[in-house]
Design a protein that fits this description.
Elements: H1 3-15, H2 22-29, H3 33-45, E1 49-55, E2 60-66, H4 68-94, H5 97-107, H6 111-116, H7 122-128, H8 142-149
Antiparallel strand pairs: 1-2
Helix pairs in contact: 1-3, 1-4, 4-5
Length: 150
């Protein structure tokens, strides 16, 4: 799965829970503000996401939500993400460290969302060791990912 497709799925699935601000999306997905802004722009242009102003406690805030087509595609993305969680769990249960490392290298960006959605258990990830072992060069460090899980 390419970087754009991963970011797209992360955002769509996060929005299945309901409208979110940019900060909330960042916390749930682990994506940076600039990654989110670019992804949200593309999703809005594609007609999958709406941007709306909402009244906050002190000031107005921008929230993002799914269109009907966005909801349909988000459900498909959720199924793909659930399969990833099942594959990771299966590799751990089988003790297939080599297969697990390959899988985590490919899907490290999904880990924060998998944790948020309770598709992967924190205890399971603690068994895996240092997430930096699987993160592609230039990706987030384990500390940064860990901060998004809690």
């Amino acid at each position: 799965m390419e970087g754009w497709a991963i970011r797209r799925d992360l955002v769509l699935v996060a929005l299945l829970e309901g409208p979110k601000t940019l900060s909330e999306l960042s916390r749930v997905t682990g994506l940076s503000r600039s990654e989110l802004e670019a992804t949200l722009l593309s999703l809005r242009v594609a007609g999958l996401v709406l941007e709306q102003e909402a009244r906050g406690l002190i000031r107005r805030k921008t929230v993002y939500s799914l269109t009907e087509q966005g909801r349909k595609e988000a459900k498909e993305a959720r199924s793909r993400i659930e399969r990833i969680a099942q594959e990771v769990t299966q590799k751990v249960e089988e003790g297939d460290d080599e297969g697990l490392e390959e899988l985590l290298t490919a899907y490290v960006l999904f880990l924060p969302l998998l944790m948020h959605l309770h598709l992967l258990d924190v205890a399971l990830l603690q068994q895996l060791g240092d997430i930096n072992d699987w993160a592609p060069e230039g990706e987030k460090s384990g500390d940064e990912l860990e901060d998004t899980w809690i």
